Amino acid sequence: MVYYSAAGSGVAEVKVILSGFVIHGYLGMKTLIIKTLALVLSVASGLSVGKEGPYVHIATAIGNICCRIFSKYQHNDGKRREVLSASAASGVGVAFGAPIGGVLFSLEEVSYYFPPKTLFRTFFCCIVAALSLKFLNPYGTGKIVLFQVHYVSDWEIFEVALFMILGALGGAAGALFIKASKIWAQSFRKIPAIKRWPMLEVILVALLTGIMSWWNRYTKLAVSELLFELASPCDYAQASNTGLCPTKEEIPQVIRYLIIAFVIKAFLTIVTFGIKVPAGIYVPSMVVGGMMGRIVGHIAQYFVVHYPNFFLFGSCPSSRGPLACVNPGVYALIAAGSTMCGVTRLSVTLVVILFELTGSLDHVLPFSLAILCAKWTANAMEPLSIYDLLTDMNSYPYLDNNLNPITDAELGEIVPSVRKSRIIDITESPLVPASELRTKLDILLRV
């Protein structure tokens, strides 16, 4: 048996609900319990899924259930949707450990109507959620997020062009992912056996994931752990367990491993997205982008190491050595955010989340440049975000308030008249008797 309301990320449905449409049972107690328990199993399975999207659905369901306690919110759809907007924001704030990013997510992505009073209430909700996570300490590290990195060294001028190229590549990767997901859904999932037994697809994807992932040192890691390893800066005074901080001679080998892992992870993410388990797309898309960024970072590192006297690399401080001039972790995180931007079309939200993950003011500018390039590239290649695609495929009645009107004509020019108009010209006479006018009107009506 498949409980469809608990499958997927739920962000697209939450977005539709906040726009005014009612999906019965989608934010109920049964959905909350089933999705929470199933999310634990799906994340622990090792599939290429994330928990961040389902966090939004779970938090929104909790907000909807809490509204039943107070008649002020239970019987007023407008006020209840304000609570749901704040709940969705807290889900993202808890998932990334970024309360401000959660507020912007609700404003930029899911909320259809977001007045100023809702902004403050949403901010308060996200702060309370972050404090609760801090006190509970679920990761055992005293931090509110599983992956958190700090960059000490600054970036160099010649890297700006690379950051912008990475942004464009990430946006293109996100747009291609949307196209590939649509093709996969319209081809493989149209097979009668898959449509009738959706759990068969889950079994096949799990088997394929195990076969393709076990032999590669990177793909067999959990997505959150892998993203942390990809984005972490290198300390060349200590040995690396994952081999992502290579010596001068090991760089080509690491690049080969990362290219293979990138192809495998990209394919598995495409076929996994949309299966009937609680699954998000945020971190898996960031992992795919992070691998791409790490590859570009190590390529740049290779050129800096082998051609240290090239005029573009003259700004590298000699005290740190040529290997430390380029930080591949920065490239990985920039590409991760750019790919997620290409998939979801979030912009300001992602810049703030990346800043909250790193705490580095020096890298806000590279993050912003890359996200801008990613959004421009993705919009040029694919106008729909992944949630717009899901809304269209599920035929949800969502009215996008960002679309321009299809015409500026008046109603009388669009709606055809029922019958031809009749005009009586009485301008030639200063006075027309009412009886004569009535007679002429009767004659016209009989025609």
UniProtKB/TrEMBL annotation:
GO terms for molecular function: voltage-gated chloride channel activity. Its main location: membrane. It is a multi-pass membrane protein. Keywords: Chloride, Ion transport, Membrane, Transmembrane, Transmembrane helix, Transport. It comes from the Eukaryota. CDD domains: ClC_3_like. InterPro entries: Cl-channel_core (IPR014743), ClC (IPR001807). This is Chloride channel protein 3. The lineage of its organism: Eukaryota, Fungi, Dikarya, Ascomycota, Pezizomycotina.
